[in-house]
Design brief:
It contains five helices and 13 strands. By secondary structure, the protein is an alpha/beta fold. A hairpin with a 2-residue loop joins strand 9 and strand 10.
Length: about 230
């Protein structure tokens, strides 16, 4: 997906509560709509959190309120597409906040481009990742390594949309046996989840993954330059 884009500002935040990140996204959406800041890629980690998108299926949450409290997991019903997923330490969450012009708008193409960023990064480590036609996200065989759910916010000042929400890429080992065990991830019962470190045996940190993802994102989306702010 290439457009006439100039600068991307990527920002890495080591840990941020989900509510604060959601508010930050909304603020940046407004700033980009008013052309007050460059297009932005937020990269961060969340404390243990379940988020439920617009395709709501309460039965896919396997824990009750008391169990959530005991395990220290927050729960949010949010305004992105998709079902329930998990965010937590050891996972790189990316929120691209970009303007998409109506004249060249391709919503499915945008999702495929976000997937391709992750596929290309994994390829550099010899991991063959791809897609499943019936599901959004990035897969290695029958295990999901990255979930994707986005919102397209209609611009108030220009003809187009500003994106928010984004991807959650599993990095640390064992994440599939952690928070994901309390849900049916994205409503998919027949497949599992995996992580970068489980697949490679490496000890990649989320911060390192964030640094490496930025140039891949910039390349796929056609930015002339990018920077990472910490």
């Amino acid at each position: 997906m290439t457009n006439a884009r100039t600068a991307l500002e990527a920002r890495y935040i080591p840990m941020l509560e989900y509510a604060a990140a959601w508010d930050l996204q909304k603020s940046i959406v407004q700033q980009i709509d008013k052309e007050e800041r460059p297009e932005t890629l937020l990269l961060l980690q969340h404390p243990p959190t379940y988020t439920i998108g617009s395709d709501r299926h309460p039965e896919h949450l396997l824990l009750d309120e008391e169990q959530l409290k005991e395990q220290g997991i927050s729960l949010f019903e949010i305004d992105r597409g998709g079902d329930i997923t998990y965010h937590g330490p050891g996972q790189l969450v990316g929120y691209p906040i970009l303007f998409l012009d109506s004249a060249t708008l391709d919503l499915h193409g945008y999702l495929r481009s976000v997937e391709q960023v992750i596929i290309n990064w994994l390829s550099g480590y010899g991991i063959t990742a791809g897609r499943k036609p019936e599901y959004t996200g990035v897969w290695v065989g029958d295990e999901k390594i990255a979930a994707i759910g986005v919102k397209f916010n209609r611009s108030r000042g220009r003809k187009g949309f500003i994106t928010s929400h984004g991807f959650a890429l599993n990095i640390v080992s064992g994440i599939g046996q952690g928070g994901f065990s309390g849900i049916v991830p994205c409503g998919i019962e027949q497949y599992g989840v995996t992580s970068f470190n489980d697949l490679t045996g490496l000890s990649m940190t989320v911060e390192q993954a964030a640094r490496e993802i930025v140039p891949h994102f910039s390349s796929i989306f056609g930015y002339e330059r990018h920077s990472l702010v910490e």
